């Protein structure tokens, strides 16, 4: 069925163009498979609550274990086992922010953000969304979707056209072309759903970061320079007006009796 369609396409477009289309299609399908693997990557909320609590408790103990030179590596390994892929230093701030704002553990934006370090610029004192990485990824999925639309939706329409021609000429290939058209359209729909999911994930990462970044900046500023708050409190205490004590009126002096 599909082979008959390919044979007709080959006769129509030629071998060289068909080989080029096949090579591009292979790359696109490989990319889609990679996307699917990332989509099914472990989420924080999908891990059993008891396991999450156990892992977080263990991380807390390791943070105070100064005698173990591998503490940082162990923390990285075990926190990735529960779906947290951004560095632990910043994931602590994420959880603190979630507690303060009342964000639930099953929030989609939170879970996606925890496993999206590839879109961030991360350094010792830098943690921000990379516009270049974000838009590069957004452009790539749009380009991939357009190419897949051209290939599979085009193949579906071409097969449907062949089916209509065969129905008139009674060539006996009507069902083959029709089924090929349906299969091609189904493949395109599957890829399009993947595009919607992946673009939605990117938008969720950006949405969460835009809400989280100002809070993080303020939090880091407070940790680096807590002194100004204390100075302001002291100054306000000094400048606070104090009650003025009223002086008692001077008593009149009685004349001293003089003896002669």
- Low-confidence segments: 230-238
Biggest beta-sheet profile = 2 strands, antiparallel
Helix content: over 70%
Class from secondary-structure proportions = mainly alpha
Number of strands: 2
Our count of helices gives 9
Kindly estimate the percentage of residues that lie in beta strands according to DSSP: under 5%
Task: Label the overall shape.
Answer: elongated
Order of helices and strands: HHHHHHEEHHH
Describe this structure in words.
The protein is mainly α and 260 residues long. The protein has helices at residues 2-13, 15-39, 49-63, 71-80, 88-101, 108-114, 131-169, 174-224, 227-239, and strands spanning 120-122, 127-129. It has a two-stranded antiparallel ribbon with strand order 1-2. It is elongated.
Structure summary:
It is built from 9 helices and 2 strands, in the order H-H-H-H-H-H-E-E-H-H-H. By secondary structure, the protein is an all-alpha fold.
Features:
260 residues, mainly alpha, two-stranded antiparallel sheet, 2 strands
Chart the SSEs and their pairings.
Blueprint: H1 2-13, H2 15-39, H3 49-63, H4 71-80, H5 88-101, H6 108-114, E1 120-122, E2 127-129, H7 131-169, H8 174-224, H9 227-239
Antiparallel strand pairs: 1-2
């Amino acid at each position: 069925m599909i082979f008959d369609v390919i044979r007709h396409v080959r006769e129509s477009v030629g071998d060289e163009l068909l080989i080029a289309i096949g090579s591009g299609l292979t790359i696109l399908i490989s990319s889609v498979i990679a996307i699917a693997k990332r989509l099914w990557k472990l989420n924080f909320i999908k891990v059993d609550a008891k396991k999450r609590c156990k892992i977080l408790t263990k991380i807390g103990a390791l943070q105070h274990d100064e005698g173990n030179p591998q503490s940082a590596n162990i923390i990285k390994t075990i926190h990735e086992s529960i779906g947290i892929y951004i560095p632990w230093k910043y994931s602590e701030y994420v959880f603190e922010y979630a507690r303060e704002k009342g964000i639930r553990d099953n929030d989609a934006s939170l879970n996606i953000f925890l496993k999206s370090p590839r879109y961030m610029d991360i350094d010792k004192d830098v943690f921000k969304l990379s516009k270049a990485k974000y838009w590069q990824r957004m452009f790539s999925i749009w380009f991939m979707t357009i190419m897949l639309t051209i290939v599979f939706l085009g193949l579906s329409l071409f097969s449907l056209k062949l089916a209509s021609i065969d129905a008139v000429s009674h060539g006996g290939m009507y069902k083959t072309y029709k089924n090929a058209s349906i299969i091609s359209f189904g493949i395109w729909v599957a890829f399009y759903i993947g595009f919607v999911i992946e673009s939605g994930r990117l938008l969720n990462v950006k949405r969460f970061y835009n809400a989280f970044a100002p809070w993080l900046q303020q939090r880091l500023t407070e940790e680096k320079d807590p002194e100004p708050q204390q100075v302001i409190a002291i100054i306000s205490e000094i400048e606070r007006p104090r009650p003025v004590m009223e002086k008692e009126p001077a008593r009149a002096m009685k004349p001293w009796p003089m003896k002669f």
